[in-house]
Structure formats: structure tokens, C-alpha cells
Amino acid sequence: MSRFSPNFSARVSRREIALSPLVWLAVSASFAIFCVLCGGIAVLAPVDRPVLLGAFSVLLGVIAIVLARQPAPEPDAALTHGVIVLAYVGTTSAMVCLAPYTVAALPVTIFVGALSAVWLDRISQIVIHWTIATVLLLAVSIVGPGNEISLIATLTLVPPTWALGLIILWVLTTAEDQSNRLELLAKRDALTGVGNRRLLDERLEADIVRHRALRRPLTVLALDLNGFKGINDTYGHAAGDRLLIHVGATLVRVVGDRATVIRQGGDEFCVLLPETGPREAAAVVDAIRAALAPVVRTGVGVATFPADASDPDRLIDIADARLTAEKTERRGLAPVPVVDPAALDAAPSAGEAAGGRVRSQRWMTGPSDASRRTLGGSTLVWWTTGAMFVFYAVGGTLVLLFRPGLVGAGYEPVLAFGSLVAVWICVSKSPPIHTVRSEFVLAMTYVIPAALIYVSGEHASVAIGTAVFVGPLVATRTESRVRAGVHLALATVLLPLAGLLGHAGLGPMLAILLLLCSMAVLAICCVFILEAAELQGVELARLAVTDPLTGLANRRGLEESIAELLAAAPPTVAVLALDLNGFKALNDALGHGAGDLLLGDVAQALRQTVGTNALIARPGGDEFTVVLPNRTLYDAGALENDIRGAIAELSREHYPISTGIGVATFPTDGRHASTLIDAADRRLLDDKYGRRDRRKPDDADAANLRARAS
Predict the structure, then answer these.
(1) Which of 129, 485, 543, 681 has the fewest C-beta atoms under 10 angstroms from its C-beta?
(2) Do 174 and 367 meet the contact criterion of CB atoms below 8 Å apart?
(3) Which ranges of 187-269 does DSSP label H, i.e. alpha helix?
(4) How far apart are CA 553 and CA 641, in angstroms?
(5) Are 347 and 248 in contact (CB under 8 A)?
(6) How far apart are CA 423 and CA 419, in angstroms?
């Protein structure tokens, strides 16, 4: 990422956030800040137990150093539970040590909700921690050194803290679920739904690391389909696609959920079998052959870690080499069954099976978009904000009715204004972020608390809890760091200024100081995480429509781009379908590595030949598609010879490469992406097999050409 933020390696998830060095640094830095504050209070303030507070300060410093030297822990690890316990046990201990300024330590409680939302995935564990924290805080306020003021402050602070934790949990769940869905698109083959090459590279590397630690074997199967080229050429690419979907679904069913099925491209598949040695792999190979035998035969190459290789690329190369050797030995031994395309129409898509397995199991669901514009403007965040204003209004009314001596002059107007704001939020719809209404509500989250602190005077502690939402809400409802910084700066000035002008005591001022520190840490972490979610969402969305080998559009990107282009109602569009003659022989003889290099060279040659205004896609295998906006059949014909010549120059020694080309035009051949692609594929077969029924330029094309020429 270009900006200073946590470096999430793949996607935004609880694990990535928990393992982020910046987030862990913020946690250890918070303990260090509280260590310094407690030490300073022990020396400068007239506390009841200065020695005990000094010792507690030293303990906080030791904890900060120990945490800083530790790597960030996994979610749900013992260390994460320990830090959450330290957050509320440390708060209650500080309340005891800070007497008579017990209330000063209360703002640290807001970290309990935030840390639990990040580090714990099970709601039962979160509820247990929150319940224990609530009991301890109330116990110190009731039977400990606390007083009536600290009890009211606790009752005011705890509910919004837990509400804040739930909102953070919801935001994280939404961001993680969005990342899961987008990662599914980015790392799944658009046709079959099984993994693509990007997933193969990532999963194989991770599996080798894990199996090395487990000292267990890992087997890689390389497969391709015998006779697939003939099937594709005879029945067309649509029939070939149905066969590939059938093969993908069959492999998923045979190897089970623990294995990973990959479509590398064309008719080439790969299967990763975890904790599987050669003997178990042989049984899986037999099961695959038996399951596919009614429709197609397959060659299989097997390589096992660590016996054959320890490097991911080397392991795949060995499996490919054994596949080639096996196909050479078996060539001519068994006829390839003729595929009935109609029999495969109802074949289940592997994508459906894969999609079923990756549905979110979370107990909370949110919008599909994890951007701040969507999350911040959501009804849930708006209603929660309104509920907190109502809670403050009710609490303030109860204080006014039963403890009027705790408030000063001007309290009633402030309370009335806050109540009106609460009612207005509850009865109005959530405004978009960066609107006047949105900015007004953000301002009220610290203006009203500042006014309450001012009119409460020496008892300002009772209003501390009303400012809990400032940091995270500002981070969620602003996309601009400048706007967020302005709001946080105003809150940082107004809250302590209100305390000073209202003649708040040392305890409330210390509480305000700790609240501001906690608010800043939470706000910064929220901004970084939400920015990461947005940036990675954009990147994953781009990857979802990109072929990982060539960098061209994939099948999904091709269909979406044509649909978008046709929606603009251009006068004409030409679609060229290509596939490579001689690619299969080169791939089988020289290996998939040589085939990959050739596909990359073809992609580059097409870019140079058709220009920058054209869309080039690789739907799969050795198939390419070129989309030419505002071009006629004549225009496409003029490019055909250039494309053929450019690709012919890529021939390897003893392996000549050429291409067939089929052309379809909008609107003559169809008005939808699928019909145009199918028409181009049919004419590609005509071109490859010499059938001279290819469409000639019609009168509409000629008239269009004459109009352009004039």
C-alpha cells in the first residue's frame, strides 16, 4: 500500500489484523502510555497508595516490554486471551491503585470491547470476557475504593463500550466476508469454479511449509484430457466448456474437501493431496480415472513432497514430466470415448460446490461492500449511534431526577438539546457520509459530551462515557484523513477545555486524558483497517477479471466488458475468436512451462498488433478473444493477416504455431455477449477446417464502410 498502514499480505481478516505488527505495536504502546501516566500520577498527585501505584506502573512497563518483544499472536491464542484479561484486570487494578481518583482508569475499558472483536471469533468467548469485565468494574465501584461518582461513571461507560465492540465486530465481519467473496472470484477459475493458477501458487507454497513442519508427505497430481482438442474442434468450444465443468465437478467429488483442485488452463488440471504418500495417491488416481472413464480419459502425473522435490515449481515440473511420459506410453492403447454434449448439459458446476463450501459461517452478516461509504452510512451504525444518544439522555435524566446535586447550572438545556438530537437520529434515515447531517452528528458526539462535562463541574466524571464513540465513529463515517483529523483535533481540544472551564477535579481530568489517548489509538487503527479493506477490495476485484498467466481479461472479464460495451449502444463491434494450432503438441513435448511462455508471447503479440483500443482476453487454454469497438467486418478482416503473421513468428523449432480466426459483429450476428462469442467460435471452426461458409460483409457493412470513408 502506498500509504502508511498495516501491510495485510493477502486480505483483510481477523487473522491478518491480529498478526499486523502495527496493531500489535499499538497494543504494547498503550500499556507503555498507561505506565508513564500511572508513574507520573504516583509522583505528582496525592493518591492514597503512591507506592502501590508506582509498583503497578512498573508492572505495566514490564508488560509493555514483554509484549513488544513478542511476535503478534494468532487469534484465539492464549496470549490474546491474556491481553484481553489484562485490559480489564489492569483497569480494575488501576482503579484500586488510583484511589481517590478511581474514575481516572475507567476509559481504558473501551479496549476490552475492541480487542475482543479483533482477536476472538466466537461470540460465546466475547460474552464471557465482557461479562467478567463488567462484574469486576462494578465490584470495584460498589465494594472497592470507588464511590457514587465512579459507579455512575461505570454504568455510563460500560454499555456504550460493549455497543462499540459489537459495531467493530460487525465491521470486521463484513470486511472479512467481502474479502472471502472477492478472493473466491480472484482465485477461482471462471468456468469451472475450481482453483486457478494463482490459488495453486499460494496454496502449494503454504502446504509445503506446513507439511515440512508436520513431516508428512504431500502429493501433486497433474492431469490433462486425452482427445480434448478434437472434442473442442468437432463440437465447438461450448461443448468443450461443458466437459471441463463436468471434469472439475467430478474431481471435487472424488478427492474430497481436504484436497485442492486447480484448473491450470485449457484441459490441464492439478490436484493437491495433503498428507498423502505415493501409495494413497495411486488409489486416488484410480478413482479419478474410473469416475471420468464414461466421458473422457485422462493422463496423470504424480510427484510427492519431499521424496521427489521440496520446491513448489520443481514439484509441478516433475508431475508434468511424468504426465507427458505416461501419455506417451499410453498413446494408442485405448480409444477416447466420444463425448455426447447433451449428456453434460446437466453436469453440476464445480463452482457451485466450491461456492457452497465458502459461504460465510459468521453469526453476523453485513453489506457486501466493506467501504466506509457503505458501512458508515449503514442503518445499523446510524441506529446504534441514535441508541447511544438515547441512552445518554435517559441516564442524564435519571441523574437529574435522583442525584441533582451532581450537576450544575445549565445542565437541563444541554440535556434537552441532547435528547432532541437523539430523537432526530432515531426518526431520520441514515445520511450519506460527508453530508451536512453526517458531519453534524459527528460533531455532536464530542460537542454534547464537552457541554455535559462543563455543566457537571467537579463531578464531570459522570459524563465521561458519553464520548466513547467519537474515535471509531469518526473513522467509519469519513473517507478523508483530513476530515477525521479535524474532528479528532476538535474533540481533543474541547473535552479537556470543558473540564478546565468547569473546574473539574484531578480525577475527571485524568479520565479525560486517558479517554483521549484511547480514542486516538482506536481511531487510528480503525482508519488503517478500513483503508486496507477498501484498497484490497479494489485489487481483488481487478484480479477477479484478470487471467493470472497473461494479464489479459479472463472469461468473466471478457463477458462483463462486452456487456458493458454493448450497453453503450455503439454502431458496431467486431469480436475475433482465436485458438492456436500446434500448441498441444508443443505443450506435450516441451512441458507446460514452455506452453506458458508461448501463451505469454501470444498475449504480447496481440497487444502490439491490435492496438490499445481493443480488448484482449484469454478465456482459457490456448483460446484468445479480441473485441474491437466501432469496427466493422472489413476492419476485422484487415487485422486477420496481421494477427496470423504475428503468431506464426512465435513458432518454436520443430513446432510450428498458427491460428484459426472467427469473426462476429454486432448487431448483425447478435446483440448479447454470449451470442457474439458463440458466433465467433463457430466461424473459428469453419476457418480451421476449411469450411468456406464464413460470413461475408453484407450490405450494412458496406454502407457503414462507405459512410466512414466519406
Answers:
(1) 485
(2) yes
(3) 197-214, 228-235, 237-255
(4) 23
(5) no
(6) 6
pTM: 0.67
Residue with cell 489484523: 17
DSSP code for 82: H
SS3 for 21-76, per residue?
HHHHHHHHHHHHHHHHHHHHHHHHCCCCCHHHHHHHHHHHHHHHHHHHHCCCCCCC
- Are the beta carbons of 277 and 219 closer than 8 angstroms? yes
Encode pLDDT of 41-75 as tens digits: 889 888 888 999 999 999 999 999 999 988 888 78
Written in H, E and C, the secondary structure of 141-186 is HHHCCCCHHHHHHHHHHHHHHHHHHHHHHHHHHHHHHHHHHHHHHH
How far, rounded to the nearest angstrom, does the alpha carbon of residue 192 sit from its chain's CA centroid? 22
How deeply is 367 buried, as exposed, middle or buried, from its count of CB atoms within 10 A (0-12, 13-18, 19+)? Answer: middle
Cβ(438)–Cβ(477) under 8 Å? yes
Which residue from 259, 263, 306 is spatially nearest to 283, judged by alpha carbons? 259
What residue spans of 70-122 are helical by DSSP H?
78-97, 110-119
Sequence letter at residue 459: H
Closest of 409, 473, 464 to residue 438, by C-alpha: 473
pLDDT of amino acid 488: 94
- Cis geometry, peptide bond prior to residue 278 (ω within 30 degrees of 0): no
Print burial letters for 203-238: b (CB count within 10 Å at least 16), e (below 16).
Answer: bbeebbeebeeeeebbbbbbbbbbbbbebbbebbbe
* Residue 640 in grid coordinates: 486477420
pLDDT tens sequence across 617-672: 998 888 899 999 988 888 888 888 899 999 999 988 788 999 989 999 998 888 88
* Residue 164 CA from chain centroid, whole number: 22
Cell numbers for 152: 455512575
pLDDT in tens, 412-443: 999 999 999 999 999 999 999 889 999 999 99
Average pLDDT in the 298-305 region?
Answer: 91
Asked if 464 and 103 touch (Cβ cutoff 8 Å), the reply is yes
> What kind and span of H or E run contains 481?
helix 481-501
d(CA 640, CA 576): 9
Phi and psi at residue 299, in whole multiples of 5°? -85, 150
Cell reading at 642: 496481421
CA distance linking residue 372 with residue 477, whole number of Å: 6
Whether the bond between 306 and the residue before it is cis, its omega within 30 degrees of 0, is: yes
Nearest Cα to 337, choosing from 370, 289, 302?
289
The four Cα atoms 53, 59, 65, 67 give a dihedral, to 10 degrees, of -110
What is the predicted pLDDT for the residue at 697?
44
CA distance 142 to 154: 10
Please answer whether residues 433 and 371 qualify as being in contact, where contact means their C-beta atoms are separated by less than 8 angstroms.
Answer: no
**Is the pLDDT at 236 greater than 80, yes or no?**
no
Query: What values do phi and psi take at 625, rounded to 5?
Result: -135, 135
**Most distant CA pair in the chain: distance in Å?**
100
Residues 6+ positions from 24 with CB-CB distance below 8 Å: 18, 67, 71, 72, 73
Separation CA 6–CA 3 (nearest Å): 9
Strands 298-305 and 260-265: unpaired
Do the beta carbons of residue 308 and residue 222 sit within 8 Å? no
Contacts of 262 by beta carbon, 8 Å cutoff, 6+ apart:
189, 194, 195, 196, 197, 199, 200, 269, 270, 271, 272
For residue 692, what pLDDT band results from cuts at 50, 70 and 90? very low
